[in-house]
Amino acid sequence: MSQDDNDNSKRGFKVNDHRWWLDENADLDEVADAAKASRPTYIEELEAQLEEKNRTLQEFIQAHKSSVSEMDQVRGRLEKELTKRVEIEKANLIGPFIDLLDNLTRLHQACESGSNPEDVGDGMGLVLKQLQEQLKKIGIEPISVQGQRFDPVTMEALMTAEVGKDKDGLVIEEIRPGYKLGDKIVRPAGVRVGVCK
Q1: What is the pLDDT of residue 15?
Q2: What percent of the chain lies above the pLDDT cut of 70?
Q3: pLDDT at position 10
């Protein structure tokens, strides 16, 4: 019996030292089991809740990965469809202009072969009319500028001319025609603007 045990028995109680790390012969598995058994139940509840939250989080992560994968597939399909539709629309748009190219080629050949200038002029007039009709079909319209007040959105002032007060800021001459597609300006009209000095 050790001195400490002797002292404790004289006092009427006995101290059992449960510090396992001081015991060289302690079984670590037994210590771990004892620790688990002695934990309060609220810690076990918290651990169970934590496991449930982790499981839910993993489900959300997996669902998110699946959703991102699906969105990538949808995006890829839409891009392919859009590219295909753009190519079809390009072909539809270009088709009529190929006829114009053929007519211009024939007109050029007629000029080189020394055809009658009046016939060449008539041919040019027909090709020009055909081009204007094709542009109108796709929605391109000329911008009306003659006698209008200068508008920097639809017009570009290429030159000015000195005028009286009544024509100050008005378009005097259209130098280069402008075109619009709906509300969008394709090319502003190049104009000579009257300036009062």
Answers
A1: 72
A2: 87
A3: 66
Q: What is the pLDDT of residue 73?
A: 94
Between CA 148 and CA 141 the distance in angstroms is 17
Which pair of tokens denotes residue 99?
């006829």
| Residue 20 burial (CB count, 10 A) | 15
- Look at residues 31, 29, 49 and name the one whose alpha carbon lies nearest to residue 41: 49
Residue 43 structure tokens: 């810690």
**Torsion sign over Cα 75, 77, 79, 82:** negative
Q: How far apart are CA 180 and CA 148, in angstroms?
A: 16
Give the separation between CA 55 and CA 24, rounded to whole angstroms.
40
Comparing CA positions, the residue from 140, 143, 156 lying closest to residue 191 is: 156
Domain ranges within the chain, ordered by starting residue: 27-94, 140-197
The pLDDT tens digits for 20-65 are 666 677 777 776 777 666 666 777 788 889 999 999 999 999 999 9
Class of domain 140-197: mainly beta
d(C-alpha 136, C-alpha 96), whole Å = 12
